[in-house]
Write a structure and sequence with these properties.
single chain, about 350 residues, alpha+beta, Creatine Kinase, Chain A, domain 2, two-stranded antiparallel sheet, 13 strands, ATP-binding, GCL_type2/YbdK_subfam, ATP binding
């Protein structure tokens, strides 16, 4: 079975104001001293952010156990520093006219110089899923075939309805913020690995693309590992949410790698509009159906996704189905955050995040 890994970002907030606190370095320094997690905790673009990357796993149970323990370590260090972890694609509130502090690093400074005031809007956090591939050739085939499924994946992982204390009307406001950067969205279709490499290299130096690592496609080949990387999900409320999404990605990669015919292509302009549509509605409305190229109820699209991936899920088939069904039943993180705010204001929303933190 293919191995997978999860990289997740979180923003550390002031527990009272729920605004980002520019003190992640204190928490990171505390965690760097632990043998279990020190090497896997890193900075991110902003000084309020922290990132954790799991080991590669074949077992979903092992992945969930590691991520749960890592979250506990991060949360404990944050609470000891008087901070709270906020695992969503965007923080609930941000100072409207204050640029966030950068994390230390020359590369971050280069990017910040290029993006100007976009830095303020880039207070966003993601969950990235790496799935093992047999070769880069296989990765290109899978990437091409995965493109029509990206809106459904985005909707499943939507968890950022709020910005500056208000409901944005979008399930994934992080996705809308991210669209403003130079190279984002669905990748184009590629002829082969050589075509991919040439087109990737040609982007360096344009806009904010200081290196291939700053190409922000929603799915791409990893430059460091023998994996395909899904970069489409918001940071997730719970470790279970994150692992469920990772299992969907692994099953999708296996299904597309084993497919005897290519998935029908979707025109790039329609796919781009469908991603915007999915960012707005999440699972509450309609999504692009890859089989027809038209909008269909989210339930129907996810049923089609399950029909494709379950035969390739191996021993995880029940877990994959249960994870998707759970998201349909209790809602994405966006739906749960909105419900908490409606039920009890920011106090209830704070409790939702802190309950999931510990």
């Amino acid at each position: 079975m293919r191995k997978f890994g999860i990289e997740e970002e979180a923003v550390l907030v002031d527990p009272a104001s729920l605004r980002p606190a520019q003190d992640a370095n204190v928490v990171i320094a505390a965690l760097r001293g632990t043998p279990e997690f020190g090497e896997r905790v890193t900075t991110e673009f902003l000084n309020a952010q922290i990132e954790y990357a799991t080991e590669p796993h074949e077992s979903a149970t092992a992945a969930l156990e590691e991520l749960t323990l890592a979250r506990l370590a991060v949360d404990t260090a944050a609470f000891d520093a008087g901070l709270a972890p906020w695992r969503a694609g965007t923080p609930f509130d941000t100072p409207p006219l204050q640029q966030p502090q950068l994390a230390p690093g020359e590369r971050y400074e280069r990017v910040a110089d290029l993006v100007g005031w976009l830095r303020h809007g880039h207070q966003i956090n993601a969950t990235h899923v790496h799935v093992e591939i047999a070769s880069r050739d296989e990765g290109i085939r899978v990437m091409n075939a995965a493109r029509p499924w990206l809106p459904a994946l985005l909707a499943l992982g939507a968890n950022s309805p709020h910005w500056q204390g208000l409901d944005t009307g979008f399930a994934s406001w992080r996705s809308i913020h991210h669209r403003r950067w130079a190279t984002t969205g669905a990748p184009p279709e590629f002829v082969d690995v050589a075509d991919y490499d040439a087109r990737l290299a040609a982007l360096v130096g344009l806009g904010l693309t200081v290196d291939v690592g700053t190409v922000g496609w929603l799915v791409r080949l990893s430059e460091r590992y023998p994996t395909i990387e899904f970069r489409i999900f918001d940071a997730q409320l719970t470790a279970t949410d994150a692992v469920d999404l990772a299992l969907v990605c692994r099953s999708l990669v296996s299904a597309l790698a084993e497919a005897d015919r290519a998935t029908a292509s979707v025109p790039p302009e329609r796919l781009d509009a469908a991603l915007w549509h999915a960012a707005r509605d999440g699972l509450e409305g309609e999504l692009l159906h890859p089989a027809t190229g038209a909008l269909a109820p989210a339930r129907d699209v996810l049923d089609a996704l399950l029909a494709l991936i379950l035969p390739a899920s191996g021993g995880d088939a029940d877990a994959v189905r249960a994870g998707v069904e759970r998201m349909l039943r209790i809602g994405t993180g966006a739906r749960r955050q909105r419900a908490a705010l409606a039920e009890g204001g920011t106090a209830r929303l704070r409790r939702l995040h802190l309950a999931n933190a510990m």
